[in-house]
Write a structure and sequence with these properties.
The complex is a heterodimer of chains A (115) and B (120). Chain A has 115 residues and is mainly β. Helix content of chain A is 0%, strand content 56%. In chain A, strand 5 and strand 6 form a beta hairpin. In chain B, strands 2, 5, 6, 10, 11 and 12 form a six-stranded mixed beta sheet that branches. Chain B is 0% helix and 51% strand. The chains are: A mainly beta (115), B mainly beta (120).
């Protein structure tokens, strides 16, 4: 079982809907990440939070809005998404941000489909 | 800029065969870290191993072994006596020291992945 929990596992939404993806870890990690992964492609980094503050935004459209309520939780709020946003969204965590030697631990992901 | 190349898009072998997944990397940094992740159909990326650039010692863990050669900038992964449960996409990734990293967090750059199919 993964130590990073993501909900929901599957999500189908219309382009006008508002939904949120949730991620939780209890490993005491202080860095949390959102990735987007299209089929047959590697994960692409979207956001990084370090100590609950946004450290990296990889030029992600504003229809994706991240939130880190506390050190264990990471949300991704979705609004007015496009069909091309359909993908697997992965959450990850690591002990600290900014130290290249620390592995990131990933959740199962949320498979998002935009109608 | 750093780059990871996994030239094998897909490999299919019969169960119990040995299989090697290739990974070649490019970096200008002298200190860097290499990773292998496994992604089964369920979607989760499972961390398998990390190797530091200053440690060229090969590693074996059960049926898995890793061959790190700085001279050829390669970090290959071998599965011995493959099993159906090994079927997955395997990603090799490179990370530089954050102070010198560009782009994503921790400079973590993924290869495109190798889809490994183990047939019964």
């Amino acid at each position: 079982d993964t130590e990073v929990t993501q909900t929901p596992k599957h999500l189908v939404m219309g382009m006008t809907n508002k939904k949120s993806l949730k991620c939780e870890q209890h490993m005491g990690h202080r860095a949390m990440y959102w990735y987007k992964q299209k089929a047959k492609k590697p994960p692409e980094l979207m956001f990084v939070y370090s100590y609950e503050k946004l450290s990296i935004n990889e030029s992600v459209p504003s229809r994706f809005s991240p939130e880190c309520p506390n050190s264990s939780l990471l949300n991704l709020h979705l609004h007015a998404l496009q069909p091309e946003d359909s993908a697997l969204y992965l959450c990850a965590s690591s002990q600290e941000y900014g130290q290249g030697n620390q592995p990131q631990h990933f959740g199962d992901g949320t498979r998002l489909s935009i109608l | 800029a750093q780059k990871v190349t996994q030239a094998q898009t897909e490999i299919s072998v019969v169960e119990k065969e040995d299989v090697t997944l290739d990974c070649v990397y490019e970096t200008r940094d002298t200190t860097y870290y290499l990773f292998w992740y496994k992604q089964p159909p369920s979607g989760e990326l499972v961390f398998l191993i990390r190797r530091n650039s200053f440690d060229e010692q090969n590693e074996i863990s059960g049926r898995y072994s890793w061959n790190f050669q700085k001279s050829t900038s390669s970090f290959n992964f071998t599965i011995t006596a493959s099993q159906v449960v090994d079927s997955a996409v395997y990603f090799c990734a490179l990370s530089e020291e954050a102070a010198k990293a560009g782009g994503g967090a921790d400079g973590l750059t993924f290869g495109k992945g190798t889809h490994l199919i183990i047939q019964p």
